[in-house]
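Supplementary Methods, section 5.1.

A reviewer requested that the exact input to the structure prediction be made available. We therefore reproduce it here, unchanged from the version used in the analyses.
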Amino acid sequence: MRRVFGSVRARAALGATVVVAVALVAAGLAVLQVLRADLVDQARLKARTDAREVASRIAAGTGYRALELDEDVPVQVVDEDGRVRAVSEDLEAVTGTGSASVTPVGPRPGPGPDGGGGDADDDGDGDDDDDAGQVSSEEEYGHGSARIDGETGDYVWAAVEVTDRRGTEVTVYAGAPLATERGAVSTARDAMLIGLPLLLLVVAAVTWLVTRRALRPVEGIRREMAAITASTDLSRRVPEPGTHDEVARLARTTNETLAALEASVARQRAFVADASHELRSPVASLRTQLEVGAAHPELLDVDGAVEDVVRLQRLAADLLLLARLDAGERPHGGSPVALDALVREELAQRTGDRVPVRTEVAPVAVRGSRGQLSRVLGNLVDNAQRHARGGVRVAVREEGRWAVLRVADDGEGVPEGERERIFERFVRLDDARSRDDGGAGLGLAIARDVVVRHGGTLTVSAAPEGGALFEMRLPSG
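The structure derived from this sequence is encoded token-by-token as follows.
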């Protein structure tokens, strides 16, 4: 059961079914309530009409025994003393009216105007000389039952007060059956009880099929990712549906991630291979010198061995820094660094350079790692001196919100098509030179990575002196 409802299709179908069920039940209850109220209002209207029609006849002087009440409409006339004065034909029992009796009583005893009974014309029409009675403008409603000709049913009663021509106040009760209301509501309820489950089944099935169709590309992506994981073949890509929905964007993003991962793995493999190749030469040279020194101490080249060890140290330090940068290391603390002072201090420590270095510095500060920025400056100056003919120029200035460091030489420069390639690791354009003179090809790669992680840029262009111009831009502050 957990596995079934663990799928997106099942949860979507269940959720849609529940929502539709709640909405339909609420709508059904509202419809039944409105239908019931409308039918009851219609019954009240009929009962009121019948009650007022009888009341009007009484007010006009028609005697209670001469009302000729139809058996189709249950009517009861009750006076203020609770006596039943008239009832409709075949009315056998009643509840909810002014009296439970259905037997009319005779005229109330007492002297009339002519010395006879008090209701002298109860059996017929009154004289035209008598004053007309009055019908109340208000009515009241109640619910009860009535048995007519042996059949009992529920009724809504309308009660209308009327004063006859002799001043006697009576109340006319007329009923309208509720059987129509009960039948209509019952029929509607039964239809809903039958139709609601069928509709919910349709909703669940349609939701299941639509969700299944929508998620089919996701299953294809999952299978392909599982295959890529099992085969470790990062050149494979997941299928991209031809739609423009979220699934298509997921597939494109997944393929972009795979492409980036493939490129990263390729760079890592190339880095490992290049690092192994770069380490092989100084290690082999150092081993050879040590083996010769062990066999012939007088032939040991101590200076050469020390040079190889220093080269190994520098290469190991470069590789360690690149590894930290690849791991996402960023400057710690972000303390202010005076870039002009950093340039002066770094160049003051450089003695015995092959070519002189001229400086043009203005006060400007950046935030970052002083050690890493010093490493960038050293790598740029080393690269410039390696290619310069007669001199190197270092300039620092502030341009808007940027602190700009420029290092230019008067060498041959960098061909325009190679200006991005020189920032790749272990890339050197002067392959004809020896590795001892040319370095390992990591300096510019390290410099750019450090600058990028400081939120800046490092580019190369043509210098006014004819050589290469390296420009570092960092946010000032």
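The chain has a mean pLDDT of 83. These observations are discussed further in the main text.
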